[in-house]
UniProtKB/TrEMBL annotation:
Sequence ranges assigned to domain Enoyl reductase (ER) in this UniProt record: 16-336
Species: [Mycobacterium] fortunisiensis
Cofactor(s) named in the record: Zn(2+)
Protein name per its UniProtKB record: alcohol dehydrogenase
Xref: PROSITE patterns: ADH_ZINC (PS00059)
Lineage: Bacteria, Bacillati, Actinomycetota, Actinomycetes, Mycobacteriales
Length: 337
């Protein structure tokens, strides 16, 4: 018989000016819901943008959407079992609207997002900066193999899964010249994934410390030559324009970092037509990408030093110290309840 779940948990609530540790009642679980005890959470760059005011978000709220945890209770009809170690998607979809039925569940008309919901709403335990998180029906959940450490698995829920979506949009990169814009967690993951697929991977980033990590993941500094595929994670219009200028005949530009308003980009339609170019965007990901992320990290766990990119974890009560850019050589801060 499974043990009874706790009735109260602890959550770090972002108030707009700081973090307030609060005791929060755990609600009754509905059909398909799961209660997960958070083992470790990593701090995504978008949360840093929230706390610095660069990104609008619900407030107060429990932030955090990259985490790994253990299922401690389930509602009727849940797809996971108590005791499983899991990661979960950022988006929660209805599964019924036209977008969901067409395979665009990340853009569900009623989408809700882990770590982005108001604390005073109907889903207060939505974020991973807490001892427990409630995962409603419609959350994609992937079981984590025993071979994958928590610090490697946690970023899969956002960074790695998003990269899997961008690589799907880019198509087969084997034997192709690929330019990656940005050497943060997403960019470095894309470097490793493209290198594993057999691409010649070049990288641009203004941060020397990040560029120093690139060779260890299969890439090299950009030579400025033409490329077949460019994937931008920077969101910089200047970087995007430079990447577009380097795309060769029949090439593709995938934009994933442009998630806040920026200066408009000048595009010559004639060049797009005559050179058979493709420009596409990717925002969030589908459930299949979450599962591919876990498979990729487990497959490459001995090839690339994933665990070295994450700082030693701090306790939940010290979350404020982790809500800042990580030190040189690290790409994610970590938190444990």
């Amino acid at each position: 018989m499974d043990p009874l779940p706790p009735r109260v948990t602890t959550a770090a609530v972002w108030t707009g000016t700081g973090v307030d540790l609060q005791a929060v009642p755990i609600p009754a679980l509905g059909d398909g819901d799961a209660l997960v005890g958070v083992r470790l959470a990593t701090v995504c760059g978008s949360d840093l943008h929230t706390v610095t005011g660069r990104r609008p978000s619900a407030c107060p709220s429990v932030l955090g959407h990259e985490a790994v945890g253990e299922v401690v209770a389930t509602g009727p009809g849940a797809d996971v079992r108590v005791g499983q170690r899991v990661i979960w998607s950022v988006t929660v979809a209805c599964g019924r609207c036209g977008r969901c039925r067409s395979g665009r569940s990340a853009k569900c008309v009623a989408v809700r997002k882990v770590g982005h919901e108001p604390f005073d709403g109907d889903w207060p335990l939505s974020g991973s900066y807490a001892a427990h998180v409630v995962l409603p029906r419609g959350t994609a959940i992937a079981v984590v193999p025993e071979t994958l450490p928590d610090a490697v698995a946690a970023p899969a829920a956002c960074a790695t899964a998003t990269v899997m979506a961008t690589l799907e949009a880019a198509g087969d990169v084997a034997g192709r010249r690929v330019l990656i814009g940005g050497a943060g967690m997403l960019g470095l993951t894309a470097v490793a994934a493209c290198a594993e697929a057999g691409a010649d991977v070049q990288v641009v980033d203004l941060d020397a410390h990040r560029m120093a990590l690139v060779p260890g993941f299969g890439g090299r500094a950009s030579s400025g030559c033409p490329v077949d595929v460019a994937i931008d994670y920077t969101g910089s219009s200047v970087a995007v324009a430079d990447a577009l200028g380097r795309i060769d005949i029949g090439g593709i530009l995938v934009l994933a970092g442009s998630v806040t308003p920026g200066p408009p980009l000048a595009i010559d339609p004639e060049r797009i037509v005559r050179q058979w170019l493709t420009i596409t965007g990717v925002h969030n990901y589908e459930p299949r990408h979450l599962h591919r992320a876990v498979e990729f990290l487990d497959r490459t766990r001995d090839r690339y030093p994933w665990e070295t990119l994450v700082t030693a974890p701090v306790a939940l009560e010290d979350l404020a110290s982790a809500l800042r850019p990580p030190p040189p050589g690290k790409l994610r801060a970590a938190v444990v309840p």
